[in-house]
Structure prediction request, 182 residues.
Amino acid sequence: MIDIREMQLDEYTKLNEIDRSESINLIYVNQGNTVVEVKARNECPNWDDTQLQEIQDRFQHEIAAGGLAYGAFVEDRLVGFGVLGHKWRGRNQDQLQVDLMYVSRQYRRQGIGAQLIRHLRDAALSRGAAYLYISSTETESAVNFYRACGSQLTPEVDSELFAKEPEDIHMIIPLTRSAASN
Prediction:
């Protein structure tokens, strides 16, 4: 049984329970107003200690600054999580970012990510956001997941996020009350 609940600041240590590893056979590359597929053969390993520390620091920073996180738990084990950033983005300051989103390898394709996105969508709506901003890794699995959640390429790329991760695919999910209740 999967239990989705809001995570607390001190639960950052549970992030080491996530297995983010995956086989990557296809990536997407930005080309103007579209993305193109590029074949890839790559194994993405789990986080090393430095990467885990960076993820934990980002988690703590966002929660402490006013963002929030939802975790998916099996018993007491964290199997997925998503973080809603605290910073307003976009020309109209009406976008909140999905800052981190991971589901452990053995729990993927079971609807956990979609449940986490629904919780983040509801939280963003309750804060007055019109869009979720996503700076997604370029992997086929990540981009297709966000597309299935209703994302589209953003017409206005956030320059700060693009500077940090220029190979990411930048998307938005329009938020509506009816979409939040799905």
